[in-house]
Every structure is written in C-alpha cells, then in structure tokens.
Amino acid sequence: MPDPSKDSERGAALLTVLLLVAVMAVVAATALERLALATRMTGNGGAVDQGRAYADAGMEMARLRIADLTASNPAKITLAGGWMGTPQSIPVPGGVAIARVTDGGNCFNLNSVVSGETEANLKVRPIGVLQFQGLLEALGVDARQAQVAAASLADWIDTDSVPQPGGAEDETYAAMERPYRAANRMMVDASELRAVSGISPAIYDLAKPWICALPVTTLSQININTLLPQQAPLFAMLLPGQLSVAQARQLLAQRPADGYGSTVQFWAMPSLAGLSPDAEVGAQVKLTTGFFGVDVSVDVGGTQVVERALIDARESPARLVRRSWGAGA
C-alpha cells in the first residue's frame, strides 16, 4: 500500500482516485443513457398501442359505413357520394386519424388462376391464367414472359406438383441459389407473387398496383360502376386480344353518372358490339362490390401507425377478414 505521507505516493493515490471517478462517471453516463432510451421506448410503445386502438376504432367506423353503403342500394354500388379514396379525417386525442375506403375487388385476384373449394384440391383454371397473362401484356410485359409468369403463378398455387408448359414446380425452386418449394396453397398477400418463378422485380413493380389476393378462388369480379378509366387494364384483361386498353379506357369514360342499371345494358352498348365474352367472363362484370379495402393512418404525438384491412361485404353485416399493420405513410 502506498504511504500518503510521502509526496510521491500521495500523487499515485490521487491518480487512482481520479481513475475511479472517471470509471464511475462513464458507468453512470451509460446507465443514464440506457434509462433514457428505455423511457423513450416505453413512451413510443405506449403511443403505438394508443395509435392501434384509434386505428381499430377508425376501422370499425369504416366497416359500418361500408355496411350502410351496401345496404342503401343492394343492387348497385356507384361512385355517388365520393366515398372511394376520399380521405376522412377523424380527430382523436393528441392527433388525427385518416381513413380511406376503396373498392377492394377491382383488381386481379391472384388466387383466381386456380379453382377448388379446399386447398387440398386446387386445380389450374385456364381462363384465370389467360387473364393474368393478358393483364401483364396490357401493362407492357413481353408475351413470352407474361405466359411464363402466368403459368408459374398457377403452379405455385395449385395442389399438384406437375408443372404446366412454361411453369415451375418444386424442382425449379430447389435448383435456385437459395432453394425453397412451391407453396401449393392460396396466396394470403399479393406480395407473395415475388417468390414465383418468372416474376422479376420489374414485372412485380408493374403488376403491384393491379393485383390482390382475395380469400376466394373466384374469377376477378369487376364492378363496372366503380372501375376508373385509369384502371382500364383490369377490364381489357377480361377479353385479351379482343379489347385494347385504350378502348377500355374510352368505354369507362363514357359511363353514365349514375352507373349502369344492369349488366345486360352494359354488354349491349354499341361500343362493345362485335365482342364475344363467354358466359363465365360475362359474369365477371358486376354492378356491386364484394370486397372493400380500408386504410387507416393515425398520427399521435408524432408517432404514425397505419392499419390496412380487407372487408367482406358480400353478406350482411360486412365483416373484417384480414388486417395488417405498418408504420409511416
């Protein structure tokens, strides 16, 4: 032990004390920093939980509004009232919630490339495959690439392991740098399309605004009374090779302000003369909407929470069938 009575040893003792103080200061600063971080995280977690609660409330309000919309005229849903895509602000304590409702059925249903009541017996539906190919071609994808992508999509979902011409099953995915297997089940989210052979990032980016993964295998049900002119590819895909995107856009721009009163009236339009949709395709054109999309964005104290949901309005009351959460705009 150093002797403090000696000048040389008194300096060493002082240096030791200073080192201990410095170490304790670093430890204290680290502890305070972690405490502050934990406090901020707790606060952010509370804000997120509060935001989710407000988003749930906004989603329920949207569901009730959708129920009112479908009940007001069960035979026809149009754009009257400006309900589609119009942001609705809902004041909440400490912030605001903004809800938007869209027609969730005016899209290509990826699950329509197969048919079947259960996932144990999903079979390729050629007309659904042809329509997906037609959509991709309408968006500018090369015909051969579109054919491969459509066939591979059907193989991804169908139950069997036998690839279609140009399609892909397990052996294709097993040979990849990071091997995996075909899902052989219905898609739950449209983003799953990225895993399908033949779907390049460029093709996915093109298709993303036009596709959906509804919880049914029925062919895409297009509400001709709510389909916008800029969504013309979704109508052109019903009649690939018979109707161009430009013709479809012009047709939608001519829609009566109060919509069509019947599908017979629609198909009898002079501008559709010469087209020959079969009964299955003709039945895809609807006057009502079965699925609605709802986005609720909540901003509470600078923390933003986004809830996206799919509402099934085919029966009353309308019900929530799927939701997802995110952050940011």
TrEMBL record:
The chain positions of domain T2SS protein K first SAM-like read 106-215
Q: Which InterPro entries match?
A: GspK (IPR005628), GspK_central_sf (IPR038072), Pilin-like (IPR045584), T2SSK_SAM-like_1st (IPR049031), T2SSK_SAM-like_2nd (IPR049179)
Record's keyword annotation contains Cell membrane: yes
Q: Which residues form a coiled coil?
A: none
Q: Where's it found, cell-wise?
A: Cell inner membrane
- Give the organism, scientific name: Sphingobium limneticum
Q: What is this protein called?
A: Type II secretion system protein K
Q: Where is the T2SS protein K second SAM-like domain?
A: 222-280
